[in-house]
């Protein structure tokens, strides 16, 4: 059975809860989605409807690689629906049932991504309130996604997705304050739930006994009992679990970043573990981590020295002893010193090997876009003499974009300058961008231009595009379209998608060059092939306007490119699709679909879409 909702075809039920059903759906391009629809009749229950509506609005505003993406929200007289990305894989609750507990290494890897995602949620002033294995999804490519914000709380807001005096959540993973004082919870309730979830992943068991089927029994245990130590797991991870699940919020980690630093060993923590003080140190266990051949060689000198002395006891008289005492002591001292020198040399060699391997791996991961582990590895060795300018630049990039760590433009600038001082020209380009857009520093187009010019002279393609932007907009220089076209062309020839788009735009409107729609199309297509949404939208505009092709206006091809760009939330394409459906251009006229596109554009801040909806008193 197939059902149509806007441009989506719903064909298979993926799951069902108390208030909503999730469907598998595809759009007109065959792209897959999951659509969560409020059950019939629920929309008349205002609190449930408002909770559903706010969940959608909150999720649309969250963009993080480890949070399930919500694409859109639709509401009409009979239907309330949340359109989400479709995920292939399974939630961690099902994974534990099928596979059992996970290794410590795997749990840490997953948790660094989870903690980054929840830290991002907290920065947005939201609290999840229902973190548990079944709300954590493991995709087929091994990525973790946090999902289901249906009972999230909006901090310091007048509206919440649930009433704050209700202890909503999954009993096994609730914090003590969710049970005793639900109105007073803050983000540290998520810290507690994350700690319990880590325990569950490592043991494969529920944290508390619910065999009697009573939530009250479980809640009583949560308030009173601490989690037991997990056997077969390092003291460090056990200490992290104990710290995260302290009964008082003030005794826990105060942020997800603090949690992650302790879990990955970046910082030390001290906790009571089995009635003893256990210190978790940030240190390399050198011998344990050395390659096998080095470990074996390291042990030999020590073993030989001990065995020779132990296996050959001799009895001599006192005088003979006194005669031999000094030379034997000297010989033993020399042997010991020699062994020590060999050991130190091997340890230093092994340490060097490990540090270089970490840095190389960190750079490779950053180049692949796996920023969480990349940041951990590169930050750990940030002051190492073996750290490369490329690794330093990656640290700056991760701070500047908030990938793998919290966004911090001041730190980004510091690391970029360190790399630039070592001759890494791409960092100069990145410094220029910070000055151009005033990120962590005041806007300074002259400093931006200086950085771009130096980087461009060294062959950095992106710097040529950025320098072209300054001339195109007249920022820090006299506006000069001829110069901007020259720079855009150099960048475009070098494969930069943004430069290709801007060169196409120059041809489309005749900025510094004769207008040429065929050349515009050529460069837009080159850029669109690299998923540049602006170029995709511009191709749609060319076909909509009839500026290319022998058949004049081509609304069908225009819609194709608009939809491509709309998948990346390009506001102009969203609005343009609304215009097509509003007026029946190349499609059957469909006002509800038009409204849905206008609403998406309006929520993303496009003023024309907001005005259009306001004309009809439609909420956006």
Automatic annotation (TrEMBL):
<keyword id="KW-0723">Serine/threonine-protein kinase</keyword>
<dbReference type="InterPro" id="IPR011990">
    <property type="entry name" value="TPR-like_helical_dom_sf"/>
</dbReference>
<dbReference type="Pfam" id="PF00069">
    <property type="entry name" value="Pkinase"/>
</dbReference>
<dbReference type="InterPro" id="IPR011009">
    <property type="entry name" value="Kinase-like_dom_sf"/>
</dbReference>
<dbReference type="InterPro" id="IPR006597">
    <property type="entry name" value="Sel1-like"/>
</dbReference>
<dbReference type="InterPro" id="IPR017441">
    <property type="entry name" value="Protein_kinase_ATP_BS"/>
</dbReference>
<dbReference type="GO" id="GO:0005776">
    <property type="term" value="C:autophagosome"/>
</dbReference>
<feature type="domain" description="Protein kinase">
    <location>
        <begin position="8"/>
        <end position="264"/>
    </location>
</feature>
<keyword id="KW-0812">Transmembrane</keyword>
<feature type="region of interest" description="Disordered">
    <location>
        <begin position="291"/>
        <end position="328"/>
    </location>
</feature>
<keyword id="KW-0418">Kinase</keyword>
<keyword id="KW-0067">ATP-binding</keyword>
<dbReference type="GO" id="GO:0005829">
    <property type="term" value="C:cytosol"/>
</dbReference>
<keyword id="KW-1133">Transmembrane helix</keyword>
<dbReference type="InterPro" id="IPR045269">
    <property type="entry name" value="Atg1-like"/>
</dbReference>
<dbReference type="GO" id="GO:0016020">
    <property type="term" value="C:membrane"/>
</dbReference>
<keyword id="KW-0808">Transferase</keyword>
<keyword id="KW-0547">Nucleotide-binding</keyword>
<dbReference type="InterPro" id="IPR008271">
    <property type="entry name" value="Ser/Thr_kinase_AS"/>
</dbReference>
<dbReference type="InterPro" id="IPR000719">
    <property type="entry name" value="Prot_kinase_dom"/>
</dbReference>
<feature type="binding site">
    <location>
        <position position="36"/>
    </location>
    <ligand>
        <name>ATP</name>
    </ligand>
</feature>
<feature type="transmembrane region" description="Helical">
    <location>
        <begin position="333"/>
        <end position="354"/>
    </location>
</feature>
<protein>
    <recommendedName>
        <fullName>non-specific serine/threonine protein kinase</fullName>
        <ecNumber>2.7.11.1</ecNumber>
    </recommendedName>
</protein>
<dbReference type="GO" id="GO:0004674">
    <property type="term" value="F:protein serine/threonine kinase activity"/>
</dbReference>
<dbReference type="GO" id="GO:0000407">
    <property type="term" value="C:phagophore assembly site"/>
</dbReference>
<dbReference type="GO" id="GO:0005524">
    <property type="term" value="F:ATP binding"/>
</dbReference>
<keyword id="KW-0472">Membrane</keyword>
<dbReference type="Pfam" id="PF08238">
    <property type="entry name" value="Sel1"/>
</dbReference>
<feature type="compositionally biased region" description="Basic and acidic residues">
    <location>
        <begin position="305"/>
        <end position="327"/>
    </location>
</feature>
